[in-house]
Amino acid sequence: MGDVELSDGVISLAPLRPEDAEAHLAGEDEPMVRWLSGGRSTRGDVDAYIRHCQEQWDTGGSLRAFGIRAGSAGTLAGTVDLRFEAEGLGAGQVNVAYGIYPAWRGRGLATRAVLLACGYAATAGGRQAVIQVEPENCASVAVARRAGFASAGYATGADGTRLDRYVRDLPFTPDNAARSSTASGA
């Protein structure tokens, strides 16, 4: 499994682990289901997803899924995923998706996680980060803007859903991302 660990001194990102399954399942609430997963998960679903994420790390697949860890105990506070290949992405573009569990929202962790993940994406060959979000998902739109992404029109999902697109050119280093996160009040 990937042995990547990124930190800005407030949060850290590391690949999801099997022992994260319970916390991930417990963190799933209505907004996570609505904006990110599309349906309630079972323990079996979460276990399968984490195995898939581990396989992607092990085989150099197009998905890099990180757990967002916060607090002195490194508690799992959410996830941030990078997809280096996906429908609607151009050469060098990387899709960024994120979710923060309810107990950790409103603390700027998603912005910090996006910036750290983008720093990693740049080192892995990404040239532009893309966030696609339903316009009604105001919290996610705010994260994109705080992380320095610019509006880039919209796309239509496979199910017909409008997704506003936000982009940010890469590269920038994790050190610069941490400074940007601090400067933006994240």
Automatic annotation (TrEMBL):
Tagged with keyword Transferase: yes
Family matches, as PANTHER family: FAMILY ACETYLTRANSFERASE, PUTATIVE (AFU_ORTHOLOGUE AFUA_7G00850)-RELATED (PTHR43441:SF2), RIBOSOMAL-PROTEIN-SERINE ACETYLTRANSFERASE (PTHR43441)
Keywords (A to Z) from UniProt: Transferase
Cross-referenced Pfam families: Acetyltransf_3
GO molecular function: protein N-terminal-serine acetyltransferase activity; protein-N-terminal-alanine acetyltransferase activity
Protein's recorded name: GCN5-like N-acetyltransferase
Top-level taxon of the source organism: Bacteria
Record domain N-acetyltransferase: where: 11-171
Transferase in keyword set: yes
Species of the source: Actinomadura verrucosospora
Gene Ontology CC: cytoplasm
Lineage of source species: Bacteria, Bacillati, Actinomycetota, Actinomycetes, Streptosporangiales
